[in-house]
Amino acid sequence: MPEGHSVHRIARQFDANFVGKRIAVSSPQGRFAAGAAELDGRTLNRVFAVGKQMFAEFDGDRWLRVHLGLYGAWDFAGRILTDPTIASAQGRMGQTNQRGTQLPEPTDVGGEDSVSSIGAPRVSRLRMSEQTRALDAAGESFPPVPVGQVRARLLTDEQLADLRGPTACVVTDGAGVQAVIDRLGPDPLHDDGPRAQEAFVAAVRRRRTAIALLLMDQSVVSGIGNVYRAELLFRARLNPHTPGRALSEDTAAALWQDWSRLLRIGVETGQMMTMDGLSPEENRRAMATLADRHWVYKREGLPCRVCGTNIVLEELGARKLYWCPSCQR
């Protein structure tokens, strides 16, 4: 499932390319036809993310709320300008993906930092990108024909965004947006003030629930998924089964602050980079390869990078949990 950094990058991509423009909205798949009709022809005023939810405001108090879930992804095509506030790992600031111009391949061999398709990786996304490039190279007209099950298509004269496989794709109003936000825990990029940290610390310390479960509870904190959960707990040297109420205020506050740092790194680079203290060569490898980017995530059975103990994989709350039983006693 795309974690919080990806959704913030998507929102910024929309802000850089679609905000202020009249948008043609359709549902090639047909499942969002009624919602698309409500939004079609309206101007997009702003887009922002809170955790794993994205909110797009159109004229007339019409909002599009999208939660990608496990399988959702946005594919972008046309004249796509990268968000100039994001320091891309490849330095792609200001470059465009338009007919005759292709973005360079991402340094990350897994494509996590891609600007053409953001969300759950799957073959259809790759096929979409290949089809778009083929059409552009052949000089065919824009926009390309929808490929696969496109729930919603947002289109301007020069930009295209196709949404596939989301958990939620609904039209609502401002009150509905606020109601969703009110149910979510704090997000450091939506509110990084002292009250956000205090809310997180209080929510954690009043619960008997294991901290590993609390970090995945979007009502406690927004945006953390399986990768960031495992890495945050290792970086804090916390046993994932520790009850939230057993954490000191300082420990809980440090978790929030570390999440804030890692989230910003993820947005800036497009990658869930969770290791620090690396040499230049180690950093280059980590930015290029997932296997070199994390302390414990997906390293079950391999020796801990710190103590040499084999990393453990267990199931907790129907999700995979990776941790070091020695460093995280």
Automatic annotation (TrEMBL):
<comment type="similarity">
    <text>Belongs to the FPG family.</text>
</comment>
<dbReference type="GO" id="GO:0140078">
    <property type="term" value="F:class I DNA-(apurinic or apyrimidinic site) endonuclease activity"/>
</dbReference>
<keyword id="KW-0862">Zinc</keyword>
<dbReference type="InterPro" id="IPR015886">
    <property type="entry name" value="H2TH_FPG"/>
</dbReference>
<dbReference type="GO" id="GO:0008270">
    <property type="term" value="F:zinc ion binding"/>
</dbReference>
<dbReference type="GO" id="GO:0003684">
    <property type="term" value="F:damaged DNA binding"/>
</dbReference>
<dbReference type="GO" id="GO:0006284">
    <property type="term" value="P:base-excision repair"/>
</dbReference>
<keyword id="KW-0479">Metal-binding</keyword>
<dbReference type="Pfam" id="PF06831">
    <property type="entry name" value="H2TH"/>
</dbReference>
<feature type="region of interest" description="Disordered">
    <location>
        <begin position="91"/>
        <end position="123"/>
    </location>
</feature>
<dbReference type="InterPro" id="IPR035937">
    <property type="entry name" value="FPG_N"/>
</dbReference>
<keyword id="KW-0227">DNA damage</keyword>
<keyword id="KW-0234">DNA repair</keyword>
<dbReference type="GO" id="GO:0003690">
    <property type="term" value="F:double-stranded DNA binding"/>
</dbReference>
<dbReference type="Pfam" id="PF01149">
    <property type="entry name" value="Fapy_DNA_glyco"/>
</dbReference>
<keyword id="KW-0378">Hydrolase</keyword>
<dbReference type="Pfam" id="PF06827">
    <property type="entry name" value="zf-FPG_IleRS"/>
</dbReference>
<keyword id="KW-0326">Glycosidase</keyword>
<feature type="domain" description="Formamidopyrimidine-DNA glycosylase catalytic">
    <location>
        <begin position="2"/>
        <end position="81"/>
    </location>
</feature>
<feature type="compositionally biased region" description="Polar residues">
    <location>
        <begin position="91"/>
        <end position="101"/>
    </location>
</feature>
<dbReference type="InterPro" id="IPR010663">
    <property type="entry name" value="Znf_FPG/IleRS"/>
</dbReference>
<feature type="domain" description="FPG-type">
    <location>
        <begin position="295"/>
        <end position="329"/>
    </location>
</feature>
<keyword id="KW-0456">Lyase</keyword>
<keyword id="KW-0863">Zinc-finger</keyword>
<dbReference type="InterPro" id="IPR000214">
    <property type="entry name" value="Znf_DNA_glyclase/AP_lyase"/>
</dbReference>
<dbReference type="GO" id="GO:0008534">
    <property type="term" value="F:oxidized purine nucleobase lesion DNA N-glycosylase activity"/>
</dbReference>
<dbReference type="GO" id="GO:0000703">
    <property type="term" value="F:oxidized pyrimidine nucleobase lesion DNA N-glycosylase activity"/>
</dbReference>
<keyword id="KW-0238">DNA-binding</keyword>
<dbReference type="InterPro" id="IPR012319">
    <property type="entry name" value="FPG_cat"/>
</dbReference>
<dbReference type="GO" id="GO:0006979">
    <property type="term" value="P:response to oxidative stress"/>
</dbReference>
<keyword id="KW-0511">Multifunctional enzyme</keyword>
<dbReference type="InterPro" id="IPR010979">
    <property type="entry name" value="Ribosomal_uS13-like_H2TH"/>
</dbReference>
<protein>
    <recommendedName>
        <fullName>DNA-(apurinic or apyrimidinic site) lyase</fullName>
        <ecNumber>4.2.99.18</ecNumber>
    </recommendedName>
</protein>
